[in-house]
Amino acid sequence: MTADPMAEIREVFFQECEDQISELEMGLLRMEIGQGDAETVNAVFRAVHSIKGGAGIFALDTLVRFAHGFETCLDRVRSGRLAIDPAGMALLLRSADALTDLVRAARNGEGAQDARAQALATELERLAAKGDAKPPSAPTLPRAAPASSPLRTWIIRFTPKAALYAHANETALLLRELSRLGTAEVEIDSSALPDLTEMDPEDAYLSWTVTLATHHDAATLRAVFDFVEDDCDLDIFERPDFAFQDWDNTAAAESAPQPMPAAAIETLPPHPVEAMAAQAESAGTVGATIRVDLDRVDRMIDLVGELVITEAMVSQRVLEAGLARTSAIAMALEELEALTREIQDSVMAIRAQPVRAVFQRIPRLVRELAAQTGKQVRLVTEGEGTEVDKTVIERIADPLTHMIRNAIDHGLESPEARIAAGKPAEGLVRLVALHRSGRIIIEVSDNGAGINRARVRQKAIDHGLINTDAPLTDDEIDNLIFLPGFSTASAVSDISGRGVGMDVVRRAVQAMGGRISIASKPGQGSTFTLSLPLTLAVLDGMVVKTADQTLIVPLASVLETLRPDGADIHPLDNRTAVLALRGGYVPIIDIADVLEFGSRIGQPEQGVALLVESEGGGRAILLVDEIQGQRQVVIKSIEANYRAVYGIAAATVMGDGHVALILDVDTIVSATRESSRLEAPRSLSQVF
Amino acid sequence: MRPGQAIIAADNPMRKLIAFRVGRQEFSVDVTAVREIRGWTSATMLPKAPRYIRGVINLRGAVLPIVDFALRLGLPASEPTARNVIIVVQVGPKQIGILVDAVSDIITLAQSRIQPPPDIASETVSDFVRGLIALDGRMISLIALDLVLPPDSAVAA
Amino acid sequence: MALTVLTVDDSRTMRDMLKHSLIAAGFRVLQAEDGIDGLDVLKRETADVIVTDVNMPRLDGFGFIEALRRDAEKRMTPILVLTTEADPDKKSRAKAAGATGWIIKPFDPAKLVDAIRRVSA
């Protein structure tokens, strides 16, 4: 129990708001592309309605007021009184954005920027007023409503008692009276009818259900039964509008309450409630969910990590004991290993979330960017359901935002330029997520002008990033945009961000053990491809040995491994040397030396060289004694019980139970490049 | 309540200590700080660490730093063997392993039996020794472990 | 024996809030997320009073009340409807469906408790 239950409920409210906002955004987007059925509109309405309701509890007045105006508008749409044109749609989308901001402001206890919300509220009010002015815009309505009161559908359930008949009343008369009031449909329930032998001729056994579409109100209907009120069981209630839509799919979302379609009279529809219950049941089997405290899941991931390590240790011991691989115990262990991996995958899957959480923020970004740049942009997203570890989700948002900015700002042309190039004025940005060989791939593509290679090349030369005569392939030129400080926009754009370019994206991606690449076709556009691990709890590493120490080098930063030829190694002084590699020079870093592990065995040419690339894009050769293989390792924190260690990112536990350190390639490469007085022209280190 | 306990005044509670040997000296830590005691296994060296950090070992999946207590106190030390002992202690949020020669005793005594450390201008004494205990002709130092790890700010750049 | 109140609302905030207020007043509280869920809960449990929201997915408040009123056993259970504003149309619809009374959100816990006691007496 927390001391302050209200604070807890408040927290629940804001969490719920996030869900509601997602629901709202998704629904509006579906409506925008014309896929908004009745349930979508209902869900959108409910989302805003719930936010308003909760906000009311906590007296968040600004939020309540705005949500109220928004909700009123949506209610008109829902009831079919208001048709939404593209301009109206845009208003609804902007209102959703504003609502998001108001919720955030309320959560942080900030004063909301009232001006924008106020302006939108006024617009919403105007839009809602349209719905008031117009008569029900239901072209499908079979006939014009003659009366001023709306047409409503009533259910009249009527079970006469024996007394009714005893009082000489006639059911048939009552039913005829009812049917005069509108369009009636009568159903007789004879389930209470006993066998003939048991039947009491004086008793009543039948009940009637009348479905009546009428302009009259309940009082008028009840008046029909004035004389028999005490002699029958009578239930009169209105059938809710939505029930029509739910059981009869042909009823359009915008239709106002309408009479029973004539065709439907012959076959009685299933009871609305039952139909819905059945629908709900089938929906329920798809995605029953529970909420679990994240700490519990993380604890489980830790434990499974232990299990994997322990299993590996046992396997190793068994092999060391000289047991044959075909022995029963070795085979049982193999089975155990397979099971362990499966458990690990399953546990990781618990923490996996669809990328939807990140993708959902993109439409708003695109709208804002389009408005800022004056470009027309259509966004298409695919694979929103693709799942990836929560930690990855949290960290892809920023790079993705940057890539989208880049695609709209630099990729797409202005509408005029597009038309001049014979393309539609509206540019296309595609955002796709998919799984490929155990990694998640995210593609951001545009159908803009593609990379202007001549300009990129010139810029790289101007910045001293490449030599004037560097022989580069198209692909290599395209990839120059990832170099630090490179920016293709002639003027530093406000949108793609204050002079930071794709190098920032690449750094962020590499920090996650990911890779980014670009493919571009002049005049047709560019595609950026992100490849990321599915989780940050494990890492693909290269196991190396130097000065008798086992180290893990993250595979993501290793470009290639080579055996250096002595003739290519050029000492610069007694501590530093460079390796001549395909026309450039790369600094050599002796890992044992840098980490002060003592001296490495033998000469540089007797070691193994790893060509690595740091997050900053700097390249270097890491010299080690031997490569022992590659494996996936579970990442363990050193800082938890100790402190940050120079040149080391984290640790892992190897199969023999010993701790192996995971190299922090970035720190080592950048520190070496700074300290080694290797500040020769940058081109030295850029090997293509 | 057992009758014996009644005579202990509230301001003189019982303390339970684990005593261990490093070289020829005897030290002790409060038993509540001790998580477990285990044998020595070879540690993985940490780059640019102080000499008294023997490295890290795997303690059921956690990475545990090992402090060679003799080196930490500036006493002569030899390479640890399988006969050495690691006392795993909790220091704040962290668990660390203290490498010692052997565990010598588990002592229960009244707080009043612990004498204040002498006023000696020795950094080691002021950093670690919190009290002295005279027991059967032995002298046992009660130590505190808050300063046993190097401070975070000392991370080499 | 404490009165059992079933609260039906799709908003967790509202459910928590209702629960908090009702438990404080000494009621036993059952919870459901929407009409369908509410009907489901009532298959296993008995409620003395039902408090339901109107706008809910799957089965809304009107449909829920209607379904209950059709059930011989539950047609006598008092049902209070939670609505956000005093919308006369909603009120009459709720009444027609068989609601016993209504409460306007955001509700005053004391008034809610009062209303529950009144209809359950």
UniProtKB/TrEMBL annotation, chain A:
<dbReference type="InterPro" id="IPR008207">
    <property type="entry name" value="Sig_transdc_His_kin_Hpt_dom"/>
</dbReference>
<dbReference type="InterPro" id="IPR003594">
    <property type="entry name" value="HATPase_dom"/>
</dbReference>
<keyword id="KW-0418">Kinase</keyword>
<dbReference type="InterPro" id="IPR004358">
    <property type="entry name" value="Sig_transdc_His_kin-like_C"/>
</dbReference>
<keyword id="KW-0067">ATP-binding</keyword>
<dbReference type="InterPro" id="IPR037006">
    <property type="entry name" value="CheA-like_homodim_sf"/>
</dbReference>
<dbReference type="InterPro" id="IPR004105">
    <property type="entry name" value="CheA-like_dim"/>
</dbReference>
<comment type="function">
    <text>Involved in the transmission of sensory signals from the chemoreceptors to the flagellar motors. CheA is autophosphorylated; it can transfer its phosphate group to either CheB or CheY.</text>
</comment>
<dbReference type="GO" id="GO:0005524">
    <property type="term" value="F:ATP binding"/>
</dbReference>
<dbReference type="InterPro" id="IPR036890">
    <property type="entry name" value="HATPase_C_sf"/>
</dbReference>
<feature type="modified residue" description="Phosphohistidine">
    <location>
        <position position="49"/>
    </location>
</feature>
<dbReference type="Pfam" id="PF01627">
    <property type="entry name" value="Hpt"/>
</dbReference>
<feature type="domain" description="HPt">
    <location>
        <begin position="2"/>
        <end position="106"/>
    </location>
</feature>
<dbReference type="InterPro" id="IPR036061">
    <property type="entry name" value="CheW-like_dom_sf"/>
</dbReference>
<feature type="domain" description="Histidine kinase">
    <location>
        <begin position="285"/>
        <end position="536"/>
    </location>
</feature>
TrEMBL record, chain B:
<dbReference type="InterPro" id="IPR036061">
    <property type="entry name" value="CheW-like_dom_sf"/>
</dbReference>
<dbReference type="InterPro" id="IPR002545">
    <property type="entry name" value="CheW-lke_dom"/>
</dbReference>
<dbReference type="GO" id="GO:0007165">
    <property type="term" value="P:signal transduction"/>
</dbReference>
<dbReference type="GO" id="GO:0006935">
    <property type="term" value="P:chemotaxis"/>
</dbReference>
<feature type="domain" description="CheW-like">
    <location>
        <begin position="14"/>
        <end position="154"/>
    </location>
</feature>
<dbReference type="Pfam" id="PF01584">
    <property type="entry name" value="CheW"/>
</dbReference>
<protein>
    <submittedName>
        <fullName>Chemotaxis protein CheW</fullName>
    </submittedName>
</protein>
<dbReference type="GO" id="GO:0005829">
    <property type="term" value="C:cytosol"/>
</dbReference>
<dbReference type="InterPro" id="IPR039315">
    <property type="entry name" value="CheW"/>
</dbReference>
UniProtKB/TrEMBL annotation, chain C:
<dbReference type="GO" id="GO:0000160">
    <property type="term" value="P:phosphorelay signal transduction system"/>
</dbReference>
<dbReference type="InterPro" id="IPR001789">
    <property type="entry name" value="Sig_transdc_resp-reg_receiver"/>
</dbReference>
<dbReference type="Pfam" id="PF00072">
    <property type="entry name" value="Response_reg"/>
</dbReference>
<protein>
    <submittedName>
        <fullName>Response regulator</fullName>
    </submittedName>
</protein>
<dbReference type="InterPro" id="IPR011006">
    <property type="entry name" value="CheY-like_superfamily"/>
</dbReference>
<feature type="domain" description="Response regulatory">
    <location>
        <begin position="4"/>
        <end position="120"/>
    </location>
</feature>
<feature type="modified residue" description="4-aspartylphosphate">
    <location>
        <position position="53"/>
    </location>
</feature>
<keyword id="KW-0597">Phosphoprotein</keyword>
<dbReference type="InterPro" id="IPR050595">
    <property type="entry name" value="Bact_response_regulator"/>
</dbReference>
